Amino acid sequence: SAYRLCTMRKLPSVLARTLTSGTSGSSVLPDMSEVRSRLRDIVGASTNWRDHVQAMQERKALHTLLAKRQEDLPPRRMKDSYLEVILPLGSQPEIREKYLNVHNSVRFGRILEDLDSLGVLICYTHTKQEMQPRSPLSIVTALVDKINLCKKIIYPDCDIKFTGNVSWVGRTSMEVKMHMLQLHDGDYSPVLDATFVMVARDPENKRPAFVNPLVPETPEEEEIFKQGELNKLKRIDFSTASLLKMAPTAEERNIIHDIFLNTLDTRQEGEATVSFRSRKLPPNSVWMEDAKLKGLQICHPQERNIFNRIFGGFLMRKAFELGWATACSYGGSRPFIVSVDDIMFQRPVEVGSLLLLSGQVCYTEKNYIQVRVHSEVYDADTREHQTTNIFHFTFISENEVPRVVPKTYGESMLYLDGKRHFAAIMKEI
Hints:
This protein has about 425 residues and is α+β, with helices and mostly antiparallel strands. It folds into 2 domains: about 30-240, Hotdog Thioesterase (Thiol Ester Dehydrase, Chain A); about 250-260 and about 285-425, Roll (Thiol Ester Dehydrase, Chain A). The chain has 10 helices and 12 strands. The strands form 2 sheets. A 10-stranded antiparallel beta sheet has the order 1-3-4-5-2-8-11-10-9-7. A two-stranded parallel ribbon has the order 6-12. Belongs to the acyl coenzyme A hydrolase family. It is found in: Mitochondrion. GO terms for molecular function: carboxylic ester hydrolase activity; fatty acyl-CoA hydrolase activity. InterPro entries: HOTDOG_ACOT, HotDog_dom_sf, Thioestr_dom.
């Protein structure tokens, strides 16, 4: 299985040197609730929903603290933004309940929420100005580039440690690399690697804002920085070649045509009488239209972030849980998450929105199930639907799964898009 293949890429040595092995020092590390309260302090966010308008008004005055040019900001090193945070599931059993799933392992959706909060705090650490307690920047998640797991099970009764730092910087955006480790027999062993991209905006979250440049100090850091640059170019290429913009390749067209021929009903005598319209499902297959699940979420104030929009981590958790349920009902056995990639946050979700989620199995191979979750908000006043996110999840099932088969041209494009995502993931692990 992929988990044996997934030998964890060695942690960049700049981080490895800082990582403490064993339990020593874990008691002094901040935990997740501290991460969230630090974020509220940095932004000056209110914990009371009724006071949020006032708190946001006060942020407007911070406009004057924004840099006019990136060159005016002091450069930072990778270690300046390096953070370690503990999730004390072993030493503080009272927090376990929130993280527990029915299989007695950790809910991955909760981990997505924690990674999202930590990524934002790392960026605020990178951009912190000494004399200002409050940051004029609104830092939000632009996309989750990838999260690759190399452990099938995350245990609910062993401490978890998150580490991370800013790994690449553009003019208004920052790439953050994070690692999650879990304590076993006195040692922390790797569970996952995550790469997020955050963007900085003005105090009202309306326009882009400049961030401190990043200066690599060692050959390893140069390498990490270069990788960030490559990641950006790879994303541009992937989006340029999107099936929404360009026709499939010759090879992909052949795949779709083969699937189509495979579903023609040839029971009628002779080729001349075979109709393009009469289709039959090949053995051990499922039509794509029968491999979807839908969900609805009312976005309450409890799920808001420090800018009083709906917290990106919450959206990721909800999408993951629907994706997992889609894979579970499709494969008929418990699926395990292998990878999350290419989550674009296209627009913020306002408190009070109706969030519509739809999960679709779009590609399968052996035990693997590729699920795409589309999320959109419905505005009851204007009756308009607007896409907010597309999520891509790769699951592995305990048993081999049936083939998913597209019927329409639109489904065929979803199938090819799923196949592309799956191929990119397999290359990684």
